[in-house]
Amino acid sequence: MFLYNLTVLYLAAVLLKQLVKKHWQEGEDSFEPPVVSDNEKDIIRKMLLLALDDPHRKICTAIGMAVASIAMYDWPELWSDLLPFLLNLINNQTNLNGVHGAMKCLVLLSADLGDNMVPTLIPALFPSLLTIVSSPQIYDSYIRTKAFSIVYSCTSMLGAMSGVYNAETSSLVVPLLKPWMEQFSSILKIPVQSENPDDWSIKMEVLKCLNQFIQNFSSLIKSEFEVVLQPLWNTFVSSLRVYELASIEGTEDSYEGRYDSDGSEISLESFVIQLFELLLTIVGNSRLGKVVAANVKELVYYTIAFLQMTEQQTPVLLYHMPSCFPVYLNKE
Ligand SMILES: *[C@@H]1O[C@H](CO)[C@@H](O)[C@H](O)[C@H]1NC(C)=O
Ligand SMILES: *[C@@H]1O[C@H](CO)[C@@H](O)[C@H](O)[C@H]1NC(C)=O
């Protein structure tokens, strides 16, 4: 691999993705002849997996995307070793590039999951994800954040299935509740950090997961909710000071309008919006809302503080001020 120029390698991976779209599967809308032969397909699939641990993140991403685009057609029927291979990669702590590549792939696969795959994927994958999120000394916060985003995708899918397959989804969710709520708690109990989008991103994924669990499975959540409540409150209260400094006073960076390498928004604002979305879900939940009702005074107090005008809104308001307060101005 090191013989080739990086740009060429990257373009090759991108090109491959195009090729898959046009020539992989006959009968697809995007198909154009000729079709790739079965033999070639086999070789391409094998080579891609071997390149997933490339040390260059951009290459790794491009390879991951190519794998995911093939998986759309071939997985699981024609590519039965894909999942075992990815699991092997994410479980190998001596090969962190491989963990990175496999996570990229799994993020893409889980975002586009069929309901037939979820029952196999969750028991196979979640124990490894749990190890990843609970080992910050080994895995960086990017990888841990992506692990939570895979959990979110899978639980959303489970949630969508829960209407029809209630008993099946419940039996998948119940064993997840305790260990994952504990992980949510251990991330949320650490106060929100200033000017640290990595911290906001991982907390934001945790809030999304929690929101999904509550929206779809609140009847299964019992004592686990109390475990997460205090840490969630810590996140809420500590985020106010950070929000004031960055968005209201404008003395710190709020990473407004910025995105990570996967196109996920990393601004403080997107984190705060997610936080309020979760609070709304909790307050609107007939059972869990009661737990919060005891502390409603504090909740309102902090919520009002969040409503202060942001630095960005100030010029707009000053501009409109004369028409807002005509009487006051006339007196002057
Ligand atoms: C883990 O990765 C290392 C380095 O790539 C490799 O030598 C080793 O065989 C891998 N272990 C397993 C169990 O796959
Ligand atoms: C699951 O949650 C989604 C919102 O994320 C909601 O639209 C859907 O109705 C819920 N389904 C069930 C069965 O609770």
Automatic annotation (TrEMBL):
InterPro entries: ARM-like (IPR011989), ARM-type_fold (IPR016024), Importin-beta_N (IPR001494)
Presence of keyword Nucleus: yes
Entry's Gene Ontology molecular function annotations: small GTPase binding
GO annotation, cellular component aspect: cytosol; nuclear envelope
Gene Ontology biological-process entries: protein import into nucleus
Main localization, broad class: nucleus
Domain of life: Eukaryota
Signal sequence, start to end: 1-17
Gene3D superfamilies: Leucine-rich Repeat Variant
Residues annotated as domain Importin N-terminal: 10-54
Subcellular location: Nucleus
Key words, A-Z: Nucleus, Signal, Transport
Full protein name: Importin N-terminal domain-containing protein
